[in-house]
Amino acid sequence: MSLVAIVGRPNVGKSTLFNRIIQERHAIVESEPGVTRDRLYAKGEWAGKRFDLVDTGGIVPHSDEMFDKAIREQAMLAIEEADSIVFVVDAMDGITPIDREIAEILRSANKPVTLVANKCDNHQLDIHATEFYELGLGEPFAISAISGRSTGDFLDRVVEPLSAQPEEEDTRLKIAIVGRPNAGKSSLTNALLGKERMVVTPIAGTTRDAIDSVVKYYGEEIVLIDTAGLRRRSNIKESIELYSTMRTARAIDRCDVAIVMLDAEHGLEHQDKRIISQVVEARKGVIIAVNKWDLIEKDTRTAEKMTEKIREELRTVDYAPVIYISAVTKQRISRVLDTAKAIQERRQRRIPTHEVNEVLIEMLEKTPPPSIRGRDLRINYVTQVKTEPPVFAFFLNFPELLPDSYKRFIERQLRKLYDFEGVPMSFVFRKKNEAMH
Predict the structure, then answer these.
(1) What 3-state DSSP class applies to 70?
(2) What are the sequence ranges of the domains in the chain?
């Protein structure tokens, strides 16, 4: 998918514009999973064209001299990756030296740029936008991100250069190897590839430099999406963070199953949890691979204890398999591929309606939902409406009253009945007379 980057100095309204574009998209696809919570990176859609959207805002460097450098670097990173760029300026402030510097970078990059003069809340203020012709980036679009005024016109321009061709369907299993820096992502990729490294042209939606690799496993081609390695050495922490967050999000978006690599010596850290929740939100298969296991002093229960600890901290993702590997000694690395294949088969599995109704409804009748506000809740019917990821629809008399705790109970029962190891599931609850005709 094409990437659209929003660039500009702080406080010009980049994040407001970002949220505005997502909300336009949100109205179209309400329940689409996979939008990261920090809203740094998300999906957009306009005029039938879908794209990834990245906001390069939010850096607040500590010192003045870091300020220009950090902004410049953010813009450079976004420009390198993007297919279309939105440059936001503040119409009320007029042109600032930083605006000029960003404009200079953008002019020398051979990319389509849409110049947006924000904070023009009414027609009288549009006159302020004309000053920005001076930046040499064509016509400035006078808009108000906060009210949405004139955002449609500029979005038409933004998506103009983007490709509308649907990508060819690639049915090979796609595995993303994600995790914190230094967890051993590249080492695992190289260990899995061994000598049979086949480099393919970037598959639909890859960033230009993320070249996927193909591993042949028992005659089957498996695509490995590797997020390791920054092409540009950066000294600025925020830029590295943005870049790797963006890479990780795009890799998760494109994969079927994500292998989240942990460092055995560090255990599960905050950033690991964030990546795991991204995978679950995107409803992709998930494997937790604890790497560098060869460096750990072990007794008979070391792995068991660590698994317990991980499960304890990831209560809602206790269905994710935990595998202990060493990318360096190649210990158990083939198990990673076997597990990923099994998870993808589970993601594609469809359970017959009569079967899931008979067994699950019977289980739920033994422990019915609590009565809420004096109303007895009754689940009448359940059916699987989608695979990859599995989505189950439940029909009941008062769907809006069903408590979250009972929804979690339903998930636990369903997982007891059917093996959905490593597979996040989705549930929709509808009023019983909306049952499918």
Answers:
(1) helix
(2) 2-159, 173-346, 353-434
E strand or H helix at 98: helix 97-108
How high is the pLDDT of residue 193? 83
pTM exceeds 0.85: no
> What average pLDDT does the segment 95-108 reach?
87
- Please give the CATH superfamily to which domain 2-159 belongs: P-loop containing nucleotide triphosphate hydrolases (3.40.50.300)
* Best CA proximity match to 283, nearest among 428, 429, 422, 430: 422
CB 27 within 8 A of CB 78: no
What tens digit of pLDDT does each residue of 274-329 get? Answer: 899 999 999 999 999 999 999 988 888 899 999 999 999 998 999 999 999 998 89
Distance CA 1, CA 223 (A): 17
The first and second tokens of residue 117, run together, are 């003069």
d(CA 86, CA 158): 7
CATH number for the region 353-434 comes to 3.30.300.20
One-letter amino acid at 147 equals S
Arithmetic mean of pLDDT, 225-252 = 63
DSSP-assigned states of every residue in 233-254: ----HHHHHHHHHHHHHHHHHH
Q: Are 257 and 173 in contact (CB under 8 A)?
A: yes
